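Cross-posting from the modeling subforum.

Setting up a comparison between two proteins and wanted a second pair of eyes on the formatting. Protein 1 (sequence, then structure tokens):
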Amino acid sequence: MNPRVTPCAVPPGTLISAYVEGAQFVDSQRTFTREAERTALSHLLHLMAATPGWIDALMTTRNRVVKLLGLKDLGRLGHIDLNREESTYQVHDRLGIFTLLANTPNEVLVADKDKHLDVYVSLSRSDVQADGTREIVVATVVHTHNRLGRLYMLPVAPVHRYIAPLMLARIPG
């Protein structure tokens, strides 16, 4: 893995921290960037738009397989329009495979919810540090609701723990 990206605790006081209790899966990774002016939403949109093709191919395969099990087709992670003005995003808008739940300059919270599981993803940024950098944290929290949700997470959890740091490493240092 990239040495710039390291596991960390879900930052206290973030919007996603309210969803950690009782979760069946929690993953949180951090890196640092000198892009101090970029908002949390801008970071997330650029990360999703830069999704490697092989990850979107995995999503396509996932969508075909889980449809047989009664889960919904999420589409592609990288299906993001970078020409859309950031200020036009509103709560409940779609961002790739997720729905926007909250958006502040320092944190964006998205989710995908269904009868089997709820997935929450947050990208948060810290205040600018003395060296001009900001800490960027991507945290994922999953609550499963039934056996199918738990079964789904068996292969997804290790793949997520590989892909999340890989994606976060794409944020310029």
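Protein 2 (same layout):
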Amino acid sequence: MAEQQLGLIADVGGTNIRLELVDMASGERRELRKYLCANYPTIVDAIKQYLSDAGQPAVTHGCIAIACPTNDDWIAMTNHSWAFSVKETQAALGWTALHLINDYTAISMSLPHLKAGQKVQIGGGEVKDGAPIAVFGPGTGLGVAHLANHAGFWMSLPGEGGHVDFAPIDEVDEHILAFLSKKYDHVSVEQLLSGPGIVQMYQAIADMKGEEAKFTDAADISTAGIDGTCPVASATMVQFCKVMGSFGGNLSLTLGTFGGVYIAGGIVPRFIDYLKQSDFRERFEAKGRFRGFNEKVPVFVVTEPQPGLVGAAAYLMQTV
């Protein structure tokens, strides 16, 4: 492979598109830029603007991580107006190859490449090289994926794990389930482990304690809960960490993730020290006869600000 062969990687959300160049020989990334999607009629327009701003580099390959299904040639964004054909986009850009992957596929692909400064470990356990990995990310929703290694190649196993049934463990969990069951026919884990989920947990615990639910914003609840200025918010954050632990432990058991369980998303990196002191790890390991199994599995919070770009680069280099 020629040393100068360049790839373009992008991470596209409903608001912004982040783009970067990657040297496909060395893996070196450079020229990170961010653009508002709304400022460009099509994704091709945004990419061409980036290439112009970056000095018209000779790109041959591309990998775009995008927050929508990527199973077909036609890509239609869930939270933005961009819709396009992968083949037509590749032709318009004149590239040798263009790959579209789901945003959580990209995040999962980043995990084996994260260094110590890009993640923080929660509790014990050691990574077993090449072993399966799990990732989940409380944010607007709850993204979930697994990663498996075959003959030195990493394969992302995406799914809809955030929509599995919520399984209560203690009395507080049981009250939350009963409270949310009045609202939903099916109470998924995402209804608790997400920004909206924090609000719903807070409302359920306020109901349990006979208190008024004063907050309506997840950030306000987490702030008041962690600094101890609101007892209901504090109880909410205690329970949020417990539910995360139970759910993460379930992911570990499902695929034997001795490569680690990773927590991504925009919520948890804001309170890593609090998470370390919480009951997260106890719930993660509290699996009866299989406590010893999960005790060996390490857990990390992803602190890398651009895991989607790291993963898109990893995906692209692996396919060339």
